[in-house]
Amino acid sequence: MKVFIFVFVFLSSFFIYANNFDGSYSLSNKDDCNKMLSIDIKNNFFSIYSMNNNLENKKLIIKGKLEILNNGTNIYLKMNAIEALYYKNTIVIQNSGNSMNNYTYFDLCDSKYLNFNKLLK
After folding, report:
1. Of 62, 68, 60, which Cα lies nearest the Cα of 91?
2. Angle at 16 between CA 10 and CA 21, to 5 degrees
3. Which pTM does this prediction carry?
4. pLDDT (tens digit, 9 = 90+) per residue, 53-108?
């Protein structure tokens, strides 16, 4: 019986988290990138798009299965190689590293951190 309760609580919390993330997220500062970026999340899958600042010519950059990591203090979203912090309907991606850990996720963006706000319906 204890195992059943544990499994039920674990699975129900997973589905609660998954449903809370569903939606569209838009780059909060359009000046951070040469193009506009957006993230769509639905049913534990994500898609990241680029488009011009008039929201035309939407082009898929990357898509895949969304992983949700909760360490008890913070919630992290893993979108393939991209890891992001999730906080109050905002996704924060560290876009670039430093000289010791050199990487850039989105070459079209100059900012070190990219904030994506959830578009409320």
Report:
1. 68
2. 130
3. 0.80
4. 666 788 999 999 999 999 999 999 999 999 999 999 999 999 999 989 999 999 98
Domain range list for the chain: 2-118
**The tokens of 113 are what?**
């951190």
Q: Which two tokens stand for residue 58?
A: 């939407």
Question: Quick one: 41 exposed, middle or buried, by C-beta within 10 A (0-12, 13-18, 19+)?
Answer: buried
Give yes or no for a contact between 98 and 106, defined as CB atoms under 8 angstroms apart: no
What band does 19 get if pLDDT is binned at 50, 70 and 90? low
Q: How far apart are CA 72 and CA 90, in angstroms?
A: 18
> Pseudo-torsion of CA 98, 104, 105, 107, nearest 10°?
140
Question: What is the average pLDDT across 5-10?
Answer: 43
Query: Amino acid letter at 68?
Result: I
d(CA 60, CA 80): 14
Integer CA distances (angstroms), 79 to 4, 44, 53, 83, 113, in order: 30, 10, 24, 6, 16
